[in-house]
Amino acid sequence: NGIDPSEQELIIYREVNINGRSTIRINGLLVNLKTLAMVGHYLVDIQGQNDTQQLLNNDEHLVLLDAFGGDDLQKIKPTYQGVFEEFRTVTQQIHKVQTSQQDIAQRLDLLKFQKEELAAANLQPDEEDKLLDARSKLSNYKKIADRLQNVEYTLNTEQHGAVDLLADAMQQLQEIATYDEAFAQLSETVSEAYYTAQEVGRDVDEQLSELTYDENELIRIDDRLQLIHSLERKYGATIQDILVFQDKITRELSDMDNGVLDIEHLQERRESLTLTLKSHAIKLRDARQNVAHQLEKNVNQQLSDLLMSGAEFAVHFDTIKGFLSQGTDKVEFYDQT
């Protein structure tokens, strides 16, 4: 609005013409009625009436008093306000816990149930893949056994088995290997095939000896897979996801057991902050009262200079219940004329 806030005096001039129009100036600057009303919102109203007048707009009196206090008062307020912010946060946390006790109890019961269920399941990271492989072998036992027996017969049948036939071919090529390099290479290739066939034959025999069918084991595997799939529908798409979830709820339970949401701890903290706030509020009030005395002195001197010797300006203090961000003081300006 162009008004210099650093000026120590505020001179308001208004001239009303006979036609109803008016001219308004503040410190010589031409302003409109809206600006005058805005400035007047922060002004005290000193009038020469016959009764006690509460000064205009008492909601602003505390702000005006603090502003008059200058830097000294502003150094005290941040300390109080810092403690007040923590006090308000703790109070909100207490209210949140108190209003959600039932939800917390239900959450605790759910977490305990989930933890016990997963602990009983005792899932292993690669368990599902191993179970699926084992189930596939048991479910296809007859087909696997038939195929392995056929391979074993093809490789190891005397005289007509692949191993014996390769042995005969290897011998024939070895007899002519010295006549041509190509024969030597063929002999080496057939020799490798012979020894590979021998090794495969031994592995097939070993697989056949270990191959068994246990219907009870198949039932156990199916039951285990059914449990795993049930847990995956509830807690995660894979066993790894379930294990991550299990670790998460374990930490949450630990936090709750360690009293992170312990209302008694929060209440003790609030009691401590209450004592600290009271101490800082008293210091803030003392500082404000010192400022109020100086303000009373200055205003009363101005009233005297205006030849209003019967007028007296006073700052009245009340203490509110509880704590606000600006302290515990309610301040009102009075002018007795």
Automatic annotation (TrEMBL):
* Organism domain of life: Bacteria
GO molecular function (one): ATP binding
Q: Where is it found, in Gene Ontology cellular component terms?
A: bacterial nucleoid
Q: Which residues form a coiled coil?
A: none
Q: Name one GO biological process term.
A: DNA repair
Signal peptide positions are none
UniProt KW keywords? ATP-binding, DNA damage, DNA repair, Nucleotide-binding
Q: Which family does it belong to?
A: Belongs to the RecN family.
The name on file for this protein is: DNA repair protein RecN
Q: Which gene encodes it?
A: recN
